[in-house]
């Protein structure tokens, strides 16, 4: 793994990977790195290899080959015992869901060869160069968020051009980091608190032939373990509503380069959200989360230029979800067409479009945006 942009998530000091015994050579005689005491859970603890902070007074463990750059997990000299309360923000939700999401990722990684994700990705690995340059058109080739297709298309279009870019997928299992590499990104990073998700992303990248360009770390959006001005683009799908947004927003802004783009696809608390969740329940009943509202986004992301929230699914999203729960199956092409009709009708009725419960959050770090010789691609409204 390359090391030039990794930093301590709190002090922002550079990190380097060394054997544990090397990291401990410069500690006071009789001292050694020790794990913190975490409330209610076990830390990763001492590992044979660690990521040592520049001042030599802190180190981060390695789990399943990935740097664990969650701040509560930092190892410190034995004369500096640390007790960290992970039941408070920004750690509470991460640590309460760590076993659940990491376990899901590990299970998915173990069965990746028979997964729909890999089967879906095979279409992209077979694309000719002209097809990759056209990202994200046609939408049927690149989109995967079945009931958020419109929002995802907005987000992908906002991030392009990807050719030659360094991109960060923030949260999730790496599906989109691999997509971006296949679309021409020079390098992609995956940052998730859950090492199980990193395992899945790494396995997927290996099977798609891009493992050498994907780098993964366990870290939090609120305390990103990356140096300033590291990325041309950041993408997140279904994760922003898990963040402590007033902390994560400025961190995203910090690690973006001048003119860098941010895009997220998220659920939104529209008028139909409460009715829909009461009737259908949440998609994932095993975790607690609060979906976004305008108040949670506008101020924390205020450092981004031209911040835009684009709504979709005002009329049909929950109908489609209800029918799916009832056993009906819809092809993505059908869902796309229904969504386009929904958006057109909702846009014609004042304020109706703004009630859509699926959104794309789009912003740009102030500065000069990247350009690409190919220019902007034609907006293609059909899915194929």
TrEMBL record:
Superkingdom to which the source organism belongs: Bacteria
Keyword Methyltransferase listed: yes
Gene3D superfamilies: 2.20.25.10, Vaccinia Virus protein VP39
One MF term in the entry's GO annotations: S-adenosylmethionine-dependent methyltransferase activity
Domain Methyltransferase type: 212-263
CDD domains: AdoMet_MTases
SUPFAM superfamilies: S-adenosyl-L-methionine-dependent methyltransferases
Protein name: Methyltransferase domain-containing protein
Coiled coil: none
GO biological process, one term: methylation
Organism, as annotated: Geodermatophilus telluris
Keyword terms, alphabetized: Methyltransferase, Transferase
Entries under InterPro entries matching the protein: Methyltransf_11, SAM-dependent_MTases_sf
Pfam families: Methyltransf_11
Membrane-crossing segments per the record: none
């Amino acid at each position: 793994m390359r090391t030039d942009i990794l930093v301590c998530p709190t002090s922002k000091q550079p990190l380097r990977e060394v054997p544990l015994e090397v990291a401990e050579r410069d500690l006071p005689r009789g001292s050694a790195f020790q794990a913190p005491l975490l409330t209610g859970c076990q830390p990763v603890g001492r590992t044979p290899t660690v990521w040592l902070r520049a001042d030599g007074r802190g180190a981060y463990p390695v789990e399943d080959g990935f740097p664990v750059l969650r701040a509560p997990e930092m190892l410190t000299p034995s004369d500096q015992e640390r007790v960290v309360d992970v039941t408070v923000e920004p750690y509470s939700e991460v640590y309460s869901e760590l076993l659940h999401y990491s376990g899901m990722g590990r299970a998915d990684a173990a069965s990746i060869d028979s997964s729909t994700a890999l089967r879906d990705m095979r279409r992209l690995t077979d694309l000719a160069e002209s097809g990759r340059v056209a990202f994200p058109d046609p939408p049927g080739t690149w989109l995967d968020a079945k009931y958020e297709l419109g929002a995802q298309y907005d987000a992908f279009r906002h991030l392009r051009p990807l050719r030659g870019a360094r991109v960060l997928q923030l949260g999730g299992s790496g599906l989109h980091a691999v997509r971006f590499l296949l679309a021409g990104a020079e390098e992609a990073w995956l940052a998730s608190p859950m090492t199980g998700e990193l395992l899945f992303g790494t396995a997927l990248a290996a099977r798609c032939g891009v493992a050498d360009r994907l780098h993964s770390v366990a870290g939090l959006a609120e305390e990103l373990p990356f140096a300033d001005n590291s990325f041309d683009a950041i993408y997140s799908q279904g994760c922003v509503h898990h963040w402590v947004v007033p902390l994560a927003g400025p961190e995203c802004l910090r690690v973006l380069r001048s003119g860098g783009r941010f895009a997220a696809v998220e659920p939104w608390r529209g008028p139909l959200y409460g009715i829909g969740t009461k009737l259908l329940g949440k998609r994932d009943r095993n975790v607690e989360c609060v979906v976004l509202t305008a108040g949670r986004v506008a101020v924390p992301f205020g450092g981004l230029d031209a911040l835009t929230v684009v709504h979709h699914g005002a009329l049909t999203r929950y109908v489609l979800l209800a029918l799916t729960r009832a056993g009906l199956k819809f092809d993505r092409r059908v869902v796309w067409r229904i969504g386009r009709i929904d958006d057109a009708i909702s846009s014609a009725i004042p304020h109706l479009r703004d009630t859509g419960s699926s959104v794309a959050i789009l912003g740009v770090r102030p500065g000069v945006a990247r350009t690409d010789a190919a220019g902007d691609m034609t907006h293609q409204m059909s899915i194929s």
